[in-house]
Amino acid sequence: MTAATHSSLFSLESDGGQMAPPPRDADAVLEGLDPEQRAVATALHGPVCVLAGAGTGKTRAITHRIAYGVRAGILPPAGVLAVTFTNRAAGEMRGRLRQLGAGGVQARTFHSAALRQLQFFWPKAVGGELPRLLERKVQVVAEAAARCRIRLDRNELRDVTGELEWAKVTQTVPADYPAEVAKSHRDAPRDPAEIGQIYAMYEQLKRDRSVIDFEDVLLLTVGILQDRADIADQIRGQYQHFVVDEYQDVSPLQQRLLELWVGDRENLCVVGDASQTIYSFTGATPDHLLDFRTRHPGATVVKLVRDYRSTPQVVHLANGLLNQARGRAAEHRLELISQREPGRDPVYTEYADEPSEAEGNARRIRDLIAAGVPAGEIAVLYRINAQSEVYEQALADAGVPYQLRGAERFFERQEVREAGAALRGAARFGGNDSLLDDVVDLPSQVRAVLSTKGWTTEPPTGSGAVRDRWESLAALVRLSEDFVRARPTATLGDLVAELDERAAAQHAPMVQGVTLASLHAAKGLEWDAVFLVGLTEGMMPITYAKTDEQVEEERRLLYVGVTRARLHLSLSWSLSRTPGGRASRRPTRFLNGLRPGTSGAGVRAVAVGSGGSVERGGAGARHKRRALARCRVCGKTLTEAGEMKLMRCEDCPSDMDEALYERLRDWRADRAEELSQPAYCVFTDKTLMAIAEAVPGSDGELAQIPGVGSRKLVRFGADVLAICAGEEGVEDRGKS
Length: 736
Known about the structure:
Blueprint: H1 26-29, H2 35-42, E1 48-52, H3 58-71, E2 80-84, H4 87-99, E3 106-109, H5 110-125, E4 132-133, H6 137-147, H7 154-169, H8 177-184, H9 192-209, E5 211-212, H10 214-227, H11 229-238, E6 241-244, H12 252-262, E7 268-272, H13 287-290, H14 292-295, E8 300-304, E9 306-307, H15 312-323, H16 328-331, E10 337-338, E11 347-353, H17 354-370, E12 378-382, H18 388-397, E13 402-405, H19 414-429, H20 442-451, H21 465-486, H22 492-505, E14 514-518, E15 527-532, H23 548-562, E16 565-576, E17 614-616, E18 629-630, E19 637-638, H24 641-646, H25 658-675, H26 685-694, H27 699-703, H28 709-724
Parallel strand pairs: 1-7, 1-8, 2-3, 2-6, 4-5, 6-7, 9-10, 11-16, 11-17, 12-14, 12-15, 13-14, 15-16
Antiparallel strand pairs: 18-19
Helix pairs in contact: 2-3, 5-10, 6-7, 6-9, 8-9, 10-11, 10-12, 15-23, 17-18, 19-22, 20-21, 25-26
């Protein structure tokens, strides 16, 4: 291994906990860089294009480049402007530059840099004070729609607001919006003519109120620099050298601003990877990266392909995905070369149904944690946020703490809370509700109630907030279908109680835990172990990816997911949605020719690592069914997870010892506080109820209760059995 992604320059001293001192001189800045990273760091003149694959240390290369130029006296610190796309990335860049002894360099987002310039030059260019920056544009968009007599619900409002942002960063004016949507084959959330009307009214309202929005910051800065050569010259006099990170994500508007900053000079360094372009719906395009050498024929081009993040097995799969890609970005793909020691092959697992998939992955995660992998170094990544609920439940049942990134917990989402309130009202006053007059069975009642909240039999086209809302409501509809299969006589009130119980179980305090995130939210992050779940046709690629370009972006999204993993990578899918359902699903086409036992359509088959295999539900046959669980009171088959823990139907009489249950709850609260974990990570409520009903007297009897398991038996068994035996003071052991 030539170099590591994490240099000792960024580590703490082992004895004092202080940051390592800056390099002693310019040459020391170059120490530890691999040959390609060194080539980037020493290319300080003229245009430079760095094509950097995932995990190749691009931030390391460009920060060392800036620091080397500053320490060598070639680049004046105040004359360098480094721009990226998020405040987190800009902050990381500033921190690294300070550690390298180049603290005077400006590292900002496009918007932050433009806003500073706009605030400074506005009085000179326009006169007076800069208009107030609009903090919540959605309110003005809502008013614009109302004035156009167009009714938008909350989610349509969010989508239309996003559409206006896309129009502005692509420099599309209101009158041209409908034609541009047709030209770009974009799925608009409403009729394009209506959005064009709203767009025009929105701009008018802003002018009337002397306010500007986030996109106006870029537009106005561009306008001033185009119209005022003296101001443009002043900015170019301050900044002589520019560095742009994540260049594959620039919008046409950001590219125009960059061109005005640079002028006719050539001191520009861009860094990007066309294979990680996954935000085209926001206006991002890799064309500027791919066309860089055409615009700058004399550019120095450096490719970073040494992957320091992932094992050869993970890298091999990532390369295989891109080998099957098509389109312009694919023509410029980078073949990564892992610099790590060999690791384990990716694990491919096929499950009978979604609950089995979630439970199986939760067990594997629990095993990884038991083997020493920190929970914070594990991630479960999925295509849409609505997929999180089944994993929230499975991890809670397995006693594994988790945290959501980029999304609210399922039962905390606005649409889920609203749906719950509507169902609760219908359960209470349904006899007087004409909406329920013609429906009898529980799922039909739920569909009728949720139809007033945006649920429809067919999903809306395209992506965005409206689609996200529909997915959440559809998940509730599916839950009602599953619930009535488990309890044929269940009422709407029973379902509401079930939803409340699930919500309460997942409102535990946040702790350091397994990350649950969408693939989009995972960009720029990495973990020791990554679980890519739900990899079926219709989800990956997503069903609304219709064009070749959209399908290829879905492939790149999966590539981004694969390259988040350092050591362990698991890929899984399920053949049906519910237990006992028809096995009609197919694994994603993107794994054809890559996972064992398959071949690609018209592409070279790629072996995964040194072997690999597809496991079937983690244990055995392709369509293995879980053993039937029967109610110990009435003998009916149980299918709902909570009932299987209790080993009885919810409405069958309980013989639970209430006093014992309360003692167990008190003990659980103490242990959870002692371990700094949510209470459900010790035992869930249902498991405590099952213990209080069974009153086990031995390890064997306790182990038979679902939700206990061997790990928890060892950790908590003695306490639980002592409480069941009526011993005094057990609850206070953790306090001493």
